[in-house]
Amino acid sequence: MRTPNLLGSLLFPLIVTIILAAAPWSYALNQRSSKPSSSVTPSSQLKYHNGRIIAGPAPIHVYIIWYGEFSPIHKTTITAFFSSFNQSVNPIIKRHPTVSTWWSTTQSYKNVKGKSVPSRVRLFGEVSDPKCSLGKNLKRADIATLVKKTIAKKAFPVDKTAMYLVLTASDVRVEQFCLNSCGFHNSVLVSPRRRVVYAHVGDPGTQCPGYCAWPYAAPAHGPPSQVLVSPNGVGIDGMVMNVATILAGTATNPFNTGYFQGNALAPLEAVTACSGIFGKGAYPGYPGKLLMDRRSKASYNVNGVKGHKFLLPAMWDLLTKTCTVTG
């Protein structure tokens, strides 16, 4: 995943050469010099490089490591986001996008055998490390170590259809987070012959809201833009946006041999190809037309379970060759 250089982009630089790690991808939001309405032109498309994707029909399993102290609302919102991938559509809001309809765009991403990305995503396990066993200043390699230790303790199984997601609290510093990245994904050997995919996303609420939670915070750089009201809190909603981006990139390009466009060391992926787009009519500094909650005035673009509302980035649709939120 790679590094954008425009306002609000969610790009993922491959760290294997850029950061000297063993095949990681990170989302950078050099969002704030200007915000592109799209990084992919209508005449271009993401290319399939004939490598592995996470393919169905079994759902993608997500295992969360909560690293640091998280509030109950923080955890509830993140877990509700994952529950929303499997929600049934309420007839009252059936004309509005949902998390599951957003994810349906991934069904056009298929491997060499014709199998698509799973239509379902499920939260399969959670563990907490509130005392920060590895400290509060982490290297990227520490994220892999944390995942390996958790699996070694048998808190999580070795699961080839999984993403092991490390979420760090607002007071935990992770190498490169907020400097040129809002999260990353990578893979690590957990046995001589077993490799798993893992990812990291931090809480940008106090560390870098203008860098990793736009448009819910003023951009860190570039022209000013209207700050929107967040439905769940700036830090929480920033994490949701970045988790969604990481998840789509992991599913469609887990080992940097799947779907991407451009240089393999700094490619555009399923969501980062649509940097800065959250609704129709997006342009630099404007996320696009969004829904608004009448009571709270919070802006969002998809509905979740139990009345939750989220803002998710647009995804590149291989069939229509457009950036879409609605699937």
Automatic annotation (TrEMBL):
The family this protein is said to belong to: Belongs to the EXORDIUM family.
Main localization category: secreted
Superkingdom as given in the UniProt entry: Eukaryota
Cellular localisation: Secreted, Extracellular space, Apoplast
Cellular component GO terms, alphabetical: apoplast
InterPro entries recorded: EXORDIUM-like
Signal peptide annotation: 1-21
Protein name per its UniProtKB record: Uncharacterized protein
Keywords of this entry: Apoplast, Secreted, Signal
UniProt xrefs under Pfam families: Phi_1 (PF04674)
